[in-house]
Amino acid sequence: MKKYLVLSFLFLLAFVFICAGIDLWQPENYAAQSVPSYITLDNTPQNNLTTDKGASLGRVLFYDKQLSLDGSQACASCHHQEFAFSDTAQLSDGYKGGKTVRHAMRLVNNRFSNEIHYFWNERAATLEEQTTMPIQDHVEMGFSGSQGDPGIDSLIKRMYSLSYYPKLFKEVFGDTLITESRMQFAMGQFVRSIQSFDTKFDEGLAQAGNLNNDFPNYTGLENTGKRLFLAPPPTGGAGCQGCHKAPEFDIDPNTHNNGVIHVAGSVDDIDLDNTKAPSLRDLFNANGQLNGPLMHNGEFLTLMDVINHYDSIPNDPRNTNLDNRLRGPGGNGTQQLGLTNAQKQALVAFIKTLSGSDVYTNPKWSDPFNSDGSLTLSGLDGFEPLAQAVLQLYPNPSRGNFLIECDQALNKLEIFDQSGRHIITFDCHNSYRKELSLQAPAGIYYVTILLSNGTKQTKKLVLSQ
Question: CATH fold of 27-196, please?
Answer without folding.
Answer: Cytochrome Bc1 Complex; Chain D, domain 2 (1.10.760)
